[in-house]
Write a structure and sequence with these properties.
By secondary structure, the protein is α/β, with parallel strands linked by helices. The protein has helices at 10-21, 39-49, 74-83, 160-170, 182-189, 205-216, 232-245; strands at 26-31, 34-38, 54-57, 63-70, 88-93, 106-112, 131-136, 141-147, 152-158, 174-178, 195-198.
Length: 253
């Protein structure tokens, strides 16, 4: 991405602030009736979507790559970006531009990823679209899988061979694991999967346990048969956290 300039416009200052919060995603930034992308995102979007790449003024003597499309085409273009293996953050206008006193207030309304998309253009008929989380513990490895389109959500744990067989069988569209486990994950399960790395503390047992209790409104997890899963519970909790962070609230059962 182009370096920020001291003279950058108020709009671009707002863009860079939002982009800094989602550095790994293509940011679709709503400007009037269009979703616009800038810098490296613009180059990627233009190549994937086959749209025109142009330049936009970014303050005096400064330009930045730009590509965009009409807001009503979001349902057409968003699935194409996700199918290409991209994370996409959608930043919408949160107030009427005519009532805005300064720069229009904007905020992230959705983060679409291969494992969390509900678009019919991405989901394959009669096939699951699983989001998985893998937690490699000291004794066993835990895995949790969720299909947002069907509501299927389960967790288990076992040897790395056992987990590998599950991954090969269910072929999740996206796998979450901790940053510190990147090397052991690739060593045991390969590097052909779409993965997203999260902070290690999110895989804490107590954090995951509390996430599940709060979500299912229960006092314990005995009724689900997973109370003793020291490796599986953190993986399940991470999935719930990931959905919350990405503005997905469809999992209510």
């Amino acid at each position: 991405m182009a370096k920020k300039k001291m003279s950058e416009t108020p709009l671009m200052k707002q863009y860079y602030k939002v982009k800094a919060e989602h550095p790994d995603a293509i940011l679709l930034f709503r400007v009037g009736d269009f979703y616009e992308t800038f810098g490296e995102d613009a180059v990627k979007a233009a190549n994937i979507l086959g749209i025109t790449l142009t330049k936009r003024a970014n303050g005096s003597a400064s330009e930045i790559d730009l590509s965009g499309f009409p807001h009503h085409a979001l349902e057409t273009y968003l699935p194409k970006l996700v199918q290409a293996g991209e994370r996409v953050a959608v930043c919408d206008q949160l107030e009427d531009p005519q009532e805005a006193k300064n720069v229009v207030k904007r905020g992230i309304t959705e983060v679409a990823t291969p494992g969390t998309s509900l678009s019919d253009k991405i989901l394959q008929h009669r096939e699951n679209n699983f989001l998985a989380a893998v937690n490699m513990g000291q004794e066993e490895t835990g895995i949790a899988l969720l299909d947002l389109s069907t509501g299927e959500f389960f967790t288990t744990q076992g040897s790395n061979v056992f987990i590998e067989n599950i991954i090969k069988s269910l072929t999740p569209a996206e796998i979450l694991h901790s940053k510190s486990q990147q090397e052991p994950f690739q060593k045991n399960f390969g590097d052909k999967y779409y993965t997203f790395l999260l902070e290690d503390w999110l895989f804490n047992f107590d954090f995951g346990y509390d996430k599940l209790l709060n979500h299912f409104q229960t006092k314990n997890l005995k009724g689900f048969g997973i109370e003793s899963m020291k490796a599986g519970i953190p993986a399940a909790g991470v999935i719930l956290y990931y959905l919350e962070e990405n503005k997905h609230h469809q999992l209510s059962h």
